[in-house]
Design a protein that fits this description.
The complex is a heterodimer of chains A (352) and B (304). Chain A contains 14 helices and no strands. By secondary structure, chain A is mainly α. Classes of the chains: A mainly alpha (352), B mainly alpha (304).
């Protein structure tokens, strides 16, 4: 401020404020990363053994038809030009047509994505509600039984195949105990009752006041969401514990204790306040991991989300859909990564 | 004085007489620290057990893992001499698990031969060369680091075709960036040290410095990281197998076995459950071992 007042008269100063420079650098990183992602998916689409022309026109087309489609798809142009066209298309939201469903891939993804979002959001919510307190208590009572529980939860979470735990969960809670509904998003009698608003069934049925649908949808989503929540709880509690240990060992905490503050104020009012930003970045990463990690869970629970979409397309050799889905998840993943990075770098004074 | 005590004193001496004694002594002290970690020893034990099971699978197996017997399909564990029962084609699950251990170990070895090596080369070259080479290589690393790994592995397998080797390649292509980061960080701390200057004055070229003097010093941090990552790699490989993109039937790969048993989960729980326990055992073992190794090799990173 002071600088612009003294030097700003009569001529434009070119020195940009430091936050603006960092913002530019971050944007350049985002652009480079997304371009890299598109390059990888482009190369995957090109090196794959399936002939993209035959995939469109079928085996029995004549040579003339083949040549025409070859040109239409732009395959006669140099590779870099093809890549340029590809980037342009993707930036406009055009991923090509799905061979399997016959629709635009972008339309397909718009239809299936809310289901994944709903599942991952609920999963992260469960992970945060259970994981943060568990991590804090494990750090405060280091070495106690609750710390051992936290460690055990983490070890299981890092070692158990999610698709297997999902199957066992189905067997126990659906097959034997009957506490929850089985695979799928909602029972057959409740299908198509709720007019979509957001595409997320729980939100839509609540907004429309269809509580019977809401209850049924909830009984379907709770098991897969708890499963994903367990994995994100394992990660979040582990990170929370190590952040808290770092804070609790520092001198200001000792000062606060010496001052005679209650343990509650020391832990939550002082130590926890200082890990909030780190924690938000961890939660954001956990969320990104769930969006990606829901692929296997969706298969187990026949959940009609983007993970199921990609896998089914994969088995049907429908490359446009696979790559479109990969790009969408990739961009969200990169976005969340950058978001947590920005949050950390811009709002945590220690990062400077 | 008996022989063992003599060896022990020789190994634990404070004044090693030779370079070999000093090296063996530090290994032995590391082993003593490691041995006191019960959980890490448990992990090591489970892994040794699985390796032995894989080696002696032909002797330990009670049945041919590929032999189908449709008359005896979906037998419960213990029935008619099938320890873990039979699957939907009447194949003995116990024997298939044993042979599956071979596949898991094969996958682990393949990934270990590719991902850390790529990371090591990228990281040390970037760190040692510096300048624009460093910038470009690290940009590429960061780009790969920001990708969703499972989804990208899926897309790679889709392009390359399903199969164990392609699954391993796909996993390796997404797994190397952290190793490059570690190797670069190590290189940056090593490259300006006095002993590197001394070697350079003796006339050693960059290739010799990197391969003979920097690589050996990066190994221990890489080993820890690889061990800790191994559980994740096994889970990803099993996940690809489960989706039908890794090992192909009739291969007794554990993930593929779960996939086959999935249809029968509600009535014949053991078909899908038992291979899952095997996957859990091997990845848990790697996690425990990795934690223990970290405590021994890299005490400053320990978080217990």
């Amino acid at each position: 401020m002071a600088q612009s007042q003294t030097h700003g008269e009569g001529r434009q100063t070119l020195s940009l404020p430091p936050w603006f420079k960092r913002l530019l650098a971050t944007l350049a990183t985002v652009a480079a990363t997304i371009l890299g992602l598109l390059f990888v998916t482009f190369m995957i689409g090109r090196v794959m053994p399936i002939d993209p022309v035959l995939a469109v026109i079928g085996e029995r087309a004549t040579q003339a038809q083949y040549d025409e489609t070859f040109r239409e798809l732009g395959l006669d142009k140099p590779l870099m030009v093809q890549f340029g066209i590809y980037v342009g298309d993707v930036l406009l939201g055009d991923f090509g047509k799905s061979i399997r469903t016959g629709q635009e891939v972008a339309t397909d993804i718009g239809r299936v994505f809310p289901a994944t979002l709903e599942l991952a959001t609920l999963g992260t919510l469960i992970g945060v509600i259970l994981g943060v307190p568990l991590g804090v208590i494990a750090a405060v009572r280091r070495g106690s039984w609750i710390d051992q529980v936290a460690r055990f939860v983490g070890l299981i979470g890092y070692s158990m195949p999610i698709f297997w735990l999902g199957l066992v969960g189905l067997l126990v809670f659906y097959g034997i105990l009957g506490w929850v509904s089985g695979p799928g998003r909602v029972g057959i009698f409740y299908q198509g009752i709720v007019e979509p608003i957001t595409g997320m069934l729980l939100v839509d049925s609540a907004l429309r006041g269809e509580w019977a649908v809401f209850r049924n949808a909830f009984s379907h989503i709770i098991l897969p969401a708890s499963l994903l929540g367990y994995y994100s709880m394992a990660y979040i509690s582990r990170m929370t514990r190590s952040f808290m240990l770092e804070q609790l060992g520092s001198e200001y905490v000792t000062t606060a204790r010496v001052k005679g503050l209650s343990e509650w104020q020391v832990v939550w009012g002082h130590a926890f306040r200082n890990i909030r930003i780190q924690l938000v970045t961890v939660i954001a990463l956990a969320y990104a991991n769930l969006l990606e990690g829901s692929v296997l869970t969706e298969i187990i629970f026949a959940w009609p989300g983007i993970g199921s979409y990609i896998t089914t397309s994969l088995l049907a050799n429908d490359m446009n859909s696979v790559l479109g889905g990969t790009i969408v998840i990739g961009v969200i993943f990169v976005g969340i990564n950058i978001f947590s990075d920005i949050l950390y770098r811009f709002f945590d004074p220690r990062a400077k | 004085m008996n022989g063992t005590a003599g060896w022990r004193d020789w190994l634990l001496t404070d004044e090693p007489a030779s370079r070999r004694q000093a090296r063996l002594s530090s290994w032995y002290k590391g082993w003593l620290t490691f041995r006191s970690n019960t959980l890490a020893m448990l992990g090591l034990g489970v892994l040794l057990f699985l390796i032995l099971a894989a080696i002696f699978a032909p002797i330990l197996a009670t049945h041919d893992p590929f032999a189908q017997d449709l008359g005896n399909r979906l037998l419960a564990p213990g029935e008619q001499g099938h320890f873990f029962g039979t699957d939907s084609l009447g194949r003995d699950i116990y024997s298939r698990i044993l042979y599956g251990a071979r596949i898991s170990i094969y996958i682990v070895l393949l990934v270990v031969m590719v991902a850390p090596v790529v990371g090591l080369i990228m990281g040390t070259v970037a760190g040692y060369a510096g300048g624009w080479i460093d910038v470009i290589l690290m940009r590429i690393t960061d780009i790969f680091l920001a990708f969703p790994r499972l989804i990208l592995a899926l897309a790679f397998v889709a392009a390359l075709g399903a199969g164990i080797e392609n699954a391993v390649l796909a996993i390796s292509l997404t797994a190397w960036p952290p190793y490059a980061r570690i190797a670069r960080a190590e290189t940056l701390t090593i490259r300006n040290s006095d002993f590197i200057h001394a070697i350079r004055l003796q006339g050693a070229g960059p290739v010799r410095i990197v391969t003979r003097h920097i690589w050996p010093l990066c190994i221990s941090s890489l080993v820890i990281r690889v061990t800790l990552d191994m559980a994740g790699i096994i889970l990803t490989a099993a996940g690809l197998g489960f989706l039908g993109l890794g090992a192909q039937p009739p291969s007794p790969e554990w993930g593929a076995m779960i996939s086959e048993g999935r249809k029968y989960i509600l009535d014949y729980w053991w078909v899908a459950t038992i291979p899952g326990i095997a996957i859990f055992a091997i990845s848990l073992a790697f996690n425990l071992l990795g934690d223990g190794l970290r405590d021994v090799l890299d005490p400053k990173e320990s978080n217990s």
